[in-house]
Amino acid sequence: GKIFRLREHLERFMRSLKFTRLDSGLNIDELEALTREVVRRNESLRDPGGDFTVTQFVTRGRAKSVVDPVPPTVCILPQRIDFAQFAKFYRSGVHVVIPRTRSYSTDSLDPKVKHYSRMNFVIASLEAADVDPEAYPVLLDENGNIAEHIAGNFYLITDGVLRMPTDHSSLQGDTQRAIREMAKRLEIPTVEEDLQPYDAYTADEIFLTNTTYCILPAGKIDNRPVGGEVPGPITRQLQSAWSEMVGVDFVDQALTAANA
Q1: Which of 59, 80, 101 is the last residue of a domain?
Q2: Of 28, 47, 80, which marks where a domain is finished?
Q3: pTM, rounded to two decimals
Q4: Total structural domains in the chain?
Q5: What is the pLDDT of residues 46-98, one digit of tens each?
Q6: Nearest Cα to 152, choosing from 94, 67, 222?
Q7: Tens-place pLDDT, residues 145-159
């Protein structure tokens, strides 16, 4: 299979390793080659019409403290995508809930670091599930600005303008970079700015992105309906552009696989 923007994901991964002072023992070329080999060896396990995610992570190994000079543990994990978890939301829109729990403070950890220290995301998911078992939590930062979904980025559209949170409080994903590129090509005005819940409650369209579901529209936020039709016209434009970019109609792929 073809891995979406593998090099770009690994570049961010290597930056996070450097920031956290973790030496995986591998350079980026070696990590890329190993990732491709893992995918190749597991290709026969992919369901017809199905897809994988592939994740790389590194721990400090079996150390007694963070300063012990022991070899790290390096993992490359392929997983089948369970399209049934989200496919229906391409048509109905997901319910976004803003939980009480906030994103981690930028005073304690820079949001540009990709990491798994995310207990606050777990608590936020539980709080969102109290409202709606199928809700997707989107967290605020310590200043009350919209930060991110626990597994991706958040966007809204107001009067034809695509708006997204700044990088002060959200992980800058490679999927987000692709959204910016497509919006520029489609001549959709785009701004990064501090966004509050008010902006989301009054938006014409809302959608979330990550490399698993690509572009997922929201139909409600905190039990308030979003705009009119779901997905909205600009969200549909971006979905079509994404499908063209990767050579697969990802919405049709998900709906077909979920109903198989």
Answers
A1: 80
A2: 80
A3: 0.91
A4: 2
A5: 888 889 999 999 998 887 777 777 888 999 999 999 999 999 999 999 999 99
A6: 94
A7: 999 998 899 999 999
